[in-house]
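so ive been stuck on this for like two days lol. basically i have the seq below and the ligand is 2-oxoglutaric acid, smiles is in there too. i just want the complex predicted, nothing fancy, no docking runs or whatever. if the output looks off dont worry ill sanity check it later, just need somthing to start from for the group meeting slides
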Amino acid sequence: MAPAATTNKNTETYDRAKDIKEFDDAKIGVKGLVDSGITTIPRFFLHPPQTLSGLTTPPDPALIPTIDLSGLYNSHLRSTIVGKVAHASRQLGFFQIINHGIEPDILERMIGAIKVFNEQPAEIKARVYRREMSSGFAFFTNVDLFHSKAANWNDAFFVRLGPSLPELDEIPEILRNEVVEWSECTKKLGEVLMELLCEGLRVEKGRLKELSFSEAPMMVGNYYPYCPEPDLTMGVKSHTDPGALTILLPNHIGRLQVKDGLEWLDVEHVPGALVVNIGDILQILSNDEYKSVQHRVLASSSDEPRVSVAVFFHPSEKESLYGPLQELISPEKPALFQQFTYTDYNNRWYTKELDGRSMVNHYRL
Ligand SMILES: O=C(O)CCC(=O)C(=O)O
Ligand SMILES: [Fe+2]
């Protein structure tokens, strides 16, 4: 048979929706596929050539600035820190922080717990495998599995950290203490960062907190297992983050890349550092001063998984209107975005494909 006909036939008979549903119903996640001994990846994980081209080009050396937060309460040092945070947020939308006040053993415990959770027997994880984000704890593969054109080589769990934590028995015991500890540490750090970001915009430092952005964080624990065909899929394809800002703790495996113009920059692992990036909502609130920038994670054939935990800061006041901060609007610099409720924002976000077309453009005037 001519190759063209074979291709055609495959296209006609391939029932993608059925394969995806079967995979999701099996509740084994990507890790379960790996453990079953597959040597090729299922077809719905294959990304199109335009996503895959250039994946193997060596990225430019990382130029993600690392900012030392020690000296935060000395007014001279603080203004230097604010300057660096604001500069990075205006340019790349990404920076790393060291001396952020979270002890190294807390970082290690959090990463360790995510790893141990994901490496439990499949049948134990299947008991908590569910997509309902309305519950306090959800564990599943690919938030946009049913909306996307190609799936990512990643399993993740989601925990609502506020306005209040879920009932503790909703969080699997194997990572319960670590989640509670991480919640406390990142809420405090989130407020510190929000103040610095406000100062960098020259608005009142409590402005983001006042708008309830420190009250409804969402935690996502990411696990990227060994991939037998890492050049054909993505760990997480290029996207921007939804909240005001994200605090990310990665393990040492690397493979996170940030888009700078036409180039992808590797985010180098800095021991003990946290990665901070501006999300779509803060780009809008800052009236385009701060940038919510595309980033992605490459799949890998390393035996050691990439593990990361992201905390996204969302507002708790879901029906309030959000848009460019009034203080930043003037006849010379009119508002560049329309106002929206967080409910509208959230509904749009969860029903779209997670991709580089950020919500920023949706609300742009
Ligand atoms: O695993 C990572 O480092 C990045 C994950 C990410 O971009 C996200 O969860 O939004
Ligand atoms: Fe992200």
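Confidence is low (pLDDT under 50) at residues 1-9. Residues 30 and 347 are 26 Å apart (CA to CA).
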